[in-house]
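Posting this for the archive.
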Amino acid sequence: MARFYPVYLDISGKRCVIVGGGKVAYRKACSLQDAGADVTVISPDVCSDIVKRNGLTVIKKKYEEGFIDDAFLVIAATDNQEVNRKIAIDAEKRNMLVNVVDCPELCSFTVPSTINRGDLCISVSTGGASPALAKNIRRKLEEIFGSEYEEYINLLTKMRALALSEIKDDLKRRKILQRLAENDMLEIVKARGTKEAETKMRQIIFE
C-alpha cells in the first residue's frame, strides 16, 4: 500500500465530482461544500438528504466518463466495485485526484478523520489500514481540544495581524508571536475569557 503524503487542499470554487447517491456520498458532498467546492453528485438514485441540500448540482444518470471532465477531484462512492474501479481509471487518465471509498489501493488521496475547531483542523489517518481506529483516536482528541480552541485561534488571528502591522523588527515579532501561542494564553481564554486574554496579548505586543 502506498504511503500517503499529508496535505490540505484549497478547493474553494473548484469543481469536485462525487459518483454515488447514498449517505456516504451525502457526507462527502457536505464536507466538500463546507470547504467551498462546487460539488456535482452523479447517480440515477439519490438519497433525500442530497435532494434537500442546497447548492449541489445533481445529475440523475448512470456514470459516464465525460461527467468528470474538468473536475479538480473525484470521489467514487457507489456500491458497485466495477463502477468505482472505472471511475478511478478514468480520473487517473486525466491526472485528477481520486478517492474510492473503502478502497485505498485505488486512491490517489484518502480522507482522514478530522476535528475542526474554527480554523484549527486536526486530522488523523491510518493510511486506509483502519478507519475505525482513526475515528477512535479522533474521539479522544475531541475531548482534549474543546470549543475554547476556536475562540483562541480567532484571537490569535486578530493579534497576529496586529503584531505584523505594529512590530517591524522580524526577530522581535517572531518571539512575540511565539509568546502569544504559549499555553498560558490558552489557559486565560479557558478560565477568564477572550477579553482578558486579548488585554494580556496587547500588553505583550506593545511592551
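Strands lie at 15-19, 38-42, 57-59, 73-76, 97-100, 113-117, 120-124. Residues 163 and 205 are 6 Å apart (CA to CA).
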